[in-house]
Amino acid sequence: MRILVLGCGYVGLVTGAVFSDIGNDVICADVDKNKVSSLNKKIMPIYEPGLEEMVRRNMEEGRLSFVTDAGSQVEWAEIIFICVGTPPRDNGETDLTQVEGAARLIGQHLSGYKIVVNKSTVPVGTGDLVRRVINETKKNGADFDVVSNPEFLREGSAIADALNPDRVVIGASSKTVAMKLLELYYTLGAPVIVTDVVSSELIKYASNSFLAMKISFINEIADICEKAGANVADVARGVGVDKRIGREFLNAGLGFGGSCFPKDVASLLHTSKGLGVEFDMLRATLAVNGERANHFVKRIADRFPDMSGRTFGVLGLAFKPDTDDMRDAKSLEIIKLIEGMGAKVKAYDPVAMPNAKKVLPGVTMCDNAYDVAEGASALIIVTEWREFRLLNMDRIKGLLKTPVVFDGRNIYDPDRIRASGFEYYSVGRA
Ligand code: UDX
User: Fold this and answer.
1) If you measure from the C-alpha of residue 310 to the centroid of ligand 1, how many angstroms do you get, rounded to a whole number?
2) Mean pLDDT over residues 406-430, rounded?
C-alpha cells in the first residue's frame, strides 16, 4: 500500500519505519526542515534501539523517504496516518492545533478517496473534528473516511512493540473501511479489536490511565510497606501472579514520567469533567505520582540534614531506561528539590545527557558512574539502566565520601548491598 505519515515524532517515525519494513511504500512528512534533512542523511532525531537500522534498510531499498512538503504527497497516498504532536495545555486539555493543521492540509489536497487514520493519541471526539475540518477545507466532492487506530508502543522498545503488538485497535464507521486497514496489519498476526471511532479513542486513554493507576497503587502500597515493615517487591510478586491482576506495571519507585502517562491521565480527567463524570481515581493517580519525588528526597534530607554544600551523585536522567527522552523525567523533579536545598548534583546517563544538559544547567555531567560517585555524599539511582546493576560496588564505595545509596528504582538486593558495607535506602522495602 501507499502510505503517507504526517509527523516524524516517536509514533510517526516508528510507524513509517515498521510499515515500510513489512513491504509498503511509505513517505513520512514533517514541517521541521532540520529533522527531515537529518533523516534523509539517516541521522535519527531520537534514540530508539533498532530504529536507525530499520530506517536505513528501508530507505536503501526504496520503500521509505522523508519530505517536508506533505501536501504534494496526499494525492499519491492510499492511507494517510496523522501522527503529529498532541501536547497538553496547562488545564490538562489536549492541544489539537497540529491535528487540525494536518486535517486542513489533507482537505486542501484531497482529490480522490483516502482513508485518514488518527494514530496520535487524541481525545474522544477528535475523529469527528478531523472529519469536519477536512469537509470544510476540501475543494471538491472527493470522499474519505476517518479511522482511529491508536498506537501502544513504549519508548525504548518501540520497534519490538510495533512489530509484535498485544492488540491492534481499529475504530471505523464501517466494517469495509476497517477491513482495508486490517490488510495493513495482517502480517503482524496480532489480535484485532474492531469498534467505532469513539470507543477506539477511549481504549487508548483507558489503557494508559489504568497502567498509570497501577503504578500509583503500588507506590502507595510501598508507603504502607515502609511503615509496616513489609517488602513491596514481594507484595507485587504475590499480587501480580493473579492472572486477573498481572505482574507488569507494579514496580514501585519514583512514579511515572514520560510524554504519555502524565499527559494522557490529565487529558482523560479533563474529558471526563467535560462530560460531567468525576473520575476521582484519576485525580488520585496524579496526586500520588506528584508526591513521589518529594517523598524520596525527604528521605535524603532526613539522612543528610545539612544538605547545603554537599554534592550528590545521580545515576540515570532519562524518564526510563533505553531512551534519551527527558520529558517529565523524575530526575528533573528530584534534582530541582536537591538543588533547592543548597546541594550540588553530578550525574551520568548513558544516552540522555545531551538532552539533559539543556534542562539541567546546574548539573555537572560525568563520563561514567564512577566519576559520579567520586567525592559524592551519596549515590542516587533515578533511572534503572541495566549497566547500573552491574557496577563494581567495591570501587563505588571507595570513591564515595560516605557509602550511602538511595535507590529510587529498587535495582539492588538490600541484603547484598548492605553486606558490602553500604547504608542503603530503597522504596517500599523497610
Ligand atoms: C507508555 C505506554 O506503556 C505505551 O503503551 C503508550 O503507547 C505510551 O505510554 P512509555 O511512556 O514509553 O509508554 O513508557 P512505560 O514503559 O509505559 O513507562 C512509563 C513510566 O512509568 C516510566 O516513567 C516508568 O519508569 C514508569 N513505570 C513503569 C513505573 O514507575 N513502574 C512500573 O511498574 C512501570
Assistant:
1) 32
2) 96
